[in-house]
Amino acid sequence: MSDKEQEKAPEIVTDQERDLAQNALAEFKKNNYVACLQNISKLDSRTNDLKVIHNKAVVEYYKSDFKKTEQFQKNLTAVCNQVIYINLKSTLKFNFI
């Protein structure tokens, strides 16, 4: 598959990854942030999945009892910067095609 085809192809979520995400959500709803983080950490192979990165930052913040605000802000800023970069990259490709 070429680079262009790879960029356009949706990222496939495996059944195992879906189960891990659902387990993480269930643990989060039970306020069991340690178990939630363990499940999310197993999704670290999804390095380009902004939802995983965002959710991990949120859970880490909850786990810290909302004390690590500066780190949380840095993590969210990093996620936002990635979104901006992706959008900019898409816009530039569209304008130069």
TrEMBL record:
One of its GO terms (cellular component) is cytoplasm. The keyword Nucleus applies. The keyword Plastid does not apply. InterPro entries: CNOT10. It comes from the Eukaryota. Keywords: Cytoplasm, Nucleus, RNA-mediated gene silencing, Transcription, Transcription regulation, Translation regulation. GO terms for biological process: mRNA catabolic process; negative regulation of translation; regulatory ncRNA-mediated gene silencing. It is found in: Cytoplasm; Nucleus. Component of the CCR4-NOT complex which is one of the major cellular mRNA deadenylases and is linked to various cellular processes including bulk mRNA degradation, miRNA-mediated repression, translational repression during translational initiation and general transcription regulation. Belongs to the CNOT10 family. This is CCR4-NOT transcription complex subunit 10. It comes from Rhamnusium bicolor.
